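Handoff note, outgoing to incoming analyst
You'll be picking up this chain. Sequence as last confirmed:
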Amino acid sequence: MFGLGQDIGIDLGTATVIAYVKGKGIVLREPSVVAVDNNTSNVLAVGKEARRMLGRTPGNIVATRPLREGVISNYTVTEKMLKYFINKVCGKFMFSPRIMICIPSQVTEVEKKAVIDAASQAGARKVYLIEEPIAAAIGAGIDISKPCGNMVVDIGGGTTDIAVISLGGSVVSNSLKVAGDKFDEAIVKYIKRKYNIIIGERTAEELKVNIGCVFPKVQDSEMEMRGRDLSTGLPKTIKVYSSEMLEALMEPALMIVDAVHSVLEKTPPELAADISDRGIYMTGGGCLVDGLDKLLQEKTGINVMIAQDAVSCVALGTGKALDNLDSLDAKSRR
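Most recent structure output, in case you need it:
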């Protein structure tokens, strides 16, 4: 049994949910996938187990990702998923936890309300929201309270959030729906166009992680993959090279670079000077695509650094922001 209920920070990602408990660190990291039985609408599996079912389920069972492009696309399933994860983190708690959840920087009031409602229904005593780039900056170890500009590019599964942060808030920000998932989609399209073979999301992701790149490599790497040949309808194995991945991933990568450009154009000159001194920080799982930092550095002429634990940055930042909850509560009481 716990004392006065825990404080939990949740990075509610399109691809992964990461939970941070105050005093314990990161305690949960699971894919945001839920398997539901359509006949009874019961949840059969959540997280890793459900991810194994993606694309492999009988007709009445559907494995879905309830979050698309950083926002809730299926409210009831998201609520069930949150409930499952909160219970998993807290065990059977006496008091409901206070929860801080990360959201993309450009979400609407309706989307914010959906997140708050889902978390409250799932058992949270009080729900706080924090913008992803701010959480990412805190998680990357940047002191955001100082009056100097820091630029963070957070590339998740569903959205890329770009923000210039100063004095604890974002001065200029942009959120675009091009991120890890769009990279996977680009690979699926490319393989279909070039080889007339259809592959699933998971195979595309494996290709992206193992040989994907957006900047020419010194040595071409290769990987075997299996898919369904569209002309015969039978499974077929082919070899794919990283130079082909470069071709496939270039378009979404350049869209991210353009968005960073447009944020830099809107940045006040004093802050822009700070950024060219301090560099651009990249966080999120999507920034680990090979060469993305080099591409951004080449196109902007600004030094680009990948944060230490890029995948967990947002969750760590949300967790660190939990320390200020009491002062937030005191403010709202005033």
